[in-house]
Structure formats: structure tokens, C-alpha cells
Input
Amino acid sequence: MADLPILSVVGLSAAFATEQGIVSVVDGVSFDLSAGATLGLVGESGCGKSVTALSIMGLLPKPAGRVTGGRILFKGEDLLALSAEQYQRIRGNRIAMIFQEPTTALNPVHRIGRQLIETLDMHRPELSKREKTAAAVELLDRVGIPAPDQRLRDYPHQLSGGMRQRVLIAIALACRPDVLIADEPTTALDVTIQAQILELMRELQREYGMGILFITHDLGVVAELCDEVVVMYAGRVVERAGVAALFANPRHPYSEGLLASIPRLESVPKTRLVTIPGMVPALSDMPDGCRFRNRCSRASNRCQVEPPLVAAGAGRVVACHHATGVDE
Output
């Protein structure tokens, strides 16, 4: 695992133009990803996880969405300073993304082979048509799709959900990227197929040595796959820690609430699950200070001032005036 991060997100902010005005969706997000490591990005729906990923990929919908601050450093180069043409050479080539829903991510009117070869056409133009077809067959075989030469001629609707997700992984890996962003790639799959996809991603990571940014709301998947976790709430990072440290000793009240809400085998049957009270504030009406304070049992007058992200031992940072626990 490399000492220097292959991808560094520094103070990233992104916003959307709406009828109510400019709405901030991501606010000052920072994290590092090393080659060969897996970083989990977790939080409730709408917390800014996917917008963070789309910002890194340069795929925020235009003209409404735009990055409003910060830097995205890939191997030390600020992607936000690149021209559209330069960004295009990196996107899908050195940094690739697996989208959440394979049914909508794949074009329903084009065969699987054409969609795979399209990536090679863009980033590997030196290959002949025969070489691209052979590469596409090899990719499908590598991600565990049986009879890959026949599947090239299939349309997406002819494949199961798990097979479609494997096709997306094959497309993302076509150019052996240095960074793979996986945006909830197992959400729509049953647990058996989910386990197969996660094991496949582990195998491919070991083979290619790529860093993976894994976006999910499933903490069970995080525990199984990730080395480090970034917890987001309402567009901000509230805690970042190693996966073992976070699960053993969450420091932020929101992290504690997320972990407490996981169903456990030792729980008494038919008892109510633990929930976090209240609602996430609207993006257009965020409170001053800590954005979690309207749901936090430890909130005080101090929480009207935004808590900074501060070191909390053992490579952990937390943004809370009342953070609890002590790392060993």
C-alpha cells in the first residue's frame, strides 16, 4: 500500500442552482485514498456521497451543478484545473466509476459488446477492432460472466441484475484504472449476489492494485470491505477513522446512532430497532453550527458554532464539541 495518497479530496464543496437559489450540497469534504486501499463513504441518503463522487469524476449535471471550492488531487495534479479535454482523458481511464443502478447505467438499445468496446475506442485507440473484441471477451470472463463471447451480443435486458452489475465492473476496469469509485454497487442485489460482487471487487483490487472509494449506506458492507471510513452528514464529514476503530469506538453521536441502528443477532425478537430521532435538515435551510444538533442528545449552546474536524487519536478525526470515547 503506497504511503502517498493516489487521490486527495481537499475542502471540496459543491452546489446546485435551484428555484430557491444556490443550494450547497457538499461542504468542505476532505479525505485521502491510497493505492490498494478501500475507503468507505457512508451516511444517510441525501448526505452528499454521490455528489462527492460525481464531483471527482467531473460529472455534475450542467449548468445547475458545479464545484464551488476545494481541490481534487489525482497523483498530485488538481483535476479542477484541467481543461475539459484533459479531464476526459482521465475519466474512465485512470479514474473509473461503477454506478448504483445497472439498469439505468447501461444503454438498453446497445449490445453489451458495443458498450464495452466504446470505452476502449475512447482510451485505447491504438488497438485494432479484433484486439478490442478480444479484450472485451477477456474482461467479461474476468468478472465471472459465463460464455463471454456470446454475452457480447446480448442486450442489457437479457441479463440478470447481478450480471449487469458485472458488466458495469468490466466497463469500469477496461483501462485498469488507478482509482475505482463504486457508488452503492450492490444495493439492488440480493445478499448472495452481493457477496459475490464484493468478493470479485476484492480479487480485482488485489490484481490491479487500485484504490477503491466505496459509497454505501450499508455498514455491514463497510465492515467487510473497507480499510477506512468517512462518515458524512448533511454535506459535511463528521468523522473519519479506521474501520475497526470506528466500529469498536465511534466518537461522533451520528456515527454512534448509525452503528446502534444495525440489527443484531442477540436482540430480543420483535423489539423495535434503534433509530436516530428527528429528520435531516433541508439542504436549503441548514442550521448554523453543527448540522446534527437538532437530532443530538448531547447538543448544547456550544453546538451553535460549527465544530471543526480535529484529530482524535489513532489516525481519527471528528467534528463534535462533545465527542466521546478514547482510542486505545
